[in-house]
Design a protein that fits this description.
mainly alpha, Butyryl-CoA Dehydrogenase, subunit A, domain 3, three-stranded antiparallel beta sheet, 67% helix, elongated
Length: 148
Amino acid sequence: MIQRKQTLFLMSVLIIGIVMIFLPFQTLNLNKQIFEICLMPSCCLEIIDSTIYYPMLLNFFSIIVSIITIFQFKKRVLQFKLSNSIALLNVFIIGFFFLLSNIKKDVIGEIHFTFGAFLPILSVIFAFLAAHFIKKDEQLVRNSDRIR
């Protein structure tokens, strides 16, 4: 059911998750050299950083759950719960981005966040919008069942 609003929001969450893999989310300034860090280690990572594995795994899990959620259109209650869990996963991704960078700040020089670090915020908003419209659909179906 591609024409539903919540499916479009879930597809935008999926697209944002895929884009987050390839966009750098941090730039490190080490000895006047600038390094970019992405979620995919082979994409733009020039130095090895083990702290990106947690957000990377959560992002992949969020992508998989959003694909599953799109195809659960007949089970609206499950779809509602899954879309809220996608939003929660993206909140954890945001937390890992900023928490792990604060841990590294003492060891490494300057850390700057790029546009990729703020993409999970859009993903959270779209996941909550999808959950809102799924809930509205479920209420509409329950009201029509009550009228019959």
